[in-house]
């Protein structure tokens, strides 16, 4: 790394629309409800630094619905299950702020509608992710399935009877290429196939830009929470083009040895990464370059 290090920041790096909306709702809550306890059910977004900032303002994360009583609860950007939402509605004196990403909410509505119409609903996603758990809850249990690869589609996947009608959708942060592959694998199955591309546009754009940037930089940094699915996916995509790709949460994770012989560093960030973490990383890189 020399003093003339070039740093290129992806235009799509940082908060997406749904995350920005959720964080804004959470930040405004203490002013709107100054005398009430405020909780988020699970982390509002998958970024520990933002969760800590909100806690300092009195917006506290809880994972236990039993802790909720009179006061305010904020539903996180990933959404919650239909059953959990119904339980919240029954808690006396509880004000609910729904910060579910509108794109996630649309996917929930599709699952509910297609399931009611008798479709076999297939969701492409990570089975343990909170967004996917929420999506599953809007379908009929015996006709709602989650898959992660096209290899799971053979006839055995449908047990002994192929469904006459299939509805396909995806977790909003899934790769577009995977969605296309699975949709193509389902086409030979006789019957009706309805494809709902529920992948967020910001996700697709972010992934495309990371691939392009990784192809022309000597090193890539992907900034975001370790628990962020879309940040981890960006890192994996970047590695396919640039082996010197590193996932960091904050500037403190930077290692000088990563940048030996590096002239150009590309930076992208997950949809839950605030701008100040990106700015801190750039400043830290510039300091490292000035010392070399």
Explain this structure to me?
Helices cover 38% and strands 19% of the residues. By secondary structure, the protein is of the alpha/beta class. The strands form three sheets. Strands 1-12-10-11 form a four-stranded parallel β-sheet, sandwiched between helices. The N and C termini lie close together (7 Å).
Search tags:
Cobalt-precorrin-4 Transmethylase, domain 1; 3 domains; 292 residues; 4-stranded parallel sheet; alpha/beta; Rossmann fold
List the helices and strands and how they pair.
Elements: E1 6-9, H1 17-32, E2 38-41, H2 48-56, E3 59-62, E4 71-75, H3 82-89, E5 94-98, H4 102-116, E6 120-124, H5 130-137, E7 144-147, E8 165-170, H6 176-186, E9 192-195, H7 201-214, E10 219-223, H8 229-241, E11 245-248, E12 264-269, H9 275-291
Parallel strand pairs: 1-12, 2-3, 2-4, 4-5, 6-7, 6-8, 8-9, 10-11, 10-12
CATH names the topology of the largest domain as: Cobalt-precorrin-4 Transmethylase, domain 1
Radius of gyration, rounded?
A: 21 Å
Helical segment tally? 9
- The fraction of residues in strands falls at 15-25%
Q: Count every beta strand, where a strand is a DSSP E run of 2 or more residues.
A: 12
Helicity level, as a percent range?
Answer: 25-40%
Domain unit count: 3
Quick structural gist:
This protein is an alpha/beta fold. Helix content is 38%, strand content 19%.
């Amino acid at each position: 790394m020399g003093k003339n290090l070039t740093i290129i920041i992806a235009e799509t790096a940082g908060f997406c629309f749904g995350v920005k909306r959720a964080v804004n709702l959470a930040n405004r809550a203490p002013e709107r409800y100054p005398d009430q306890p405020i909780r988020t059910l699970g982390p509002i977004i998958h970024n520990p630094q933002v969760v800590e900032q909100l806690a300092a303002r009195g917006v506290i994360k809880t994972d236990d619905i039993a802790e909720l009583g009179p006061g305010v609860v904020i539903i996180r950007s990933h959404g919650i299950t239909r059953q959990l939402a119904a339980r919240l509605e029954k808690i006396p004196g509880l004000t609910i702020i729904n910060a579910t990403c509108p794109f996630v909410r649309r996917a929930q509505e599709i699952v509910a509608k297609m399931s009611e119409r008798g479709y076999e609903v297939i969701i492409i996603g990570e089975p343990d992710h909170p967004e996917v758990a929420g999506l599953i809850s809007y379908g009929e249990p015996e006709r709602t399935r989650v898959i992660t690869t096209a290899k799971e589609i053979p006839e055995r996947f449908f047990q002994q009877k192929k469904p006459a009608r299939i509805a396909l959708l995806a977790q909003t942060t899934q790769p577009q290429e995977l969605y296309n592959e699975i949709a193509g694998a389902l086409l030979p199955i006789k019957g009706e196939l309805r494809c709902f591309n529920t992948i967020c546009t910001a996700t697709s754009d972010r992934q495309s830009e990371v691939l392009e940037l990784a192809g022309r930089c000597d090193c890539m940094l992907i900034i975001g929470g370790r628990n962020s699915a879309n940040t981890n996916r960006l890192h994996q995509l970047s590695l396919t083009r640039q082996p010197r790709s590193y996932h960091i949460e904050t500037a403190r994770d930077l290692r000088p040895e990563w940048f030996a012989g590096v002239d150009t560093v590309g930076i992208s960030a997950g949809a839950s990464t605030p701008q100040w973490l990106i700015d801190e990383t750039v400043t830290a890189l510039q300091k490292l370059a000035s010392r070399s």
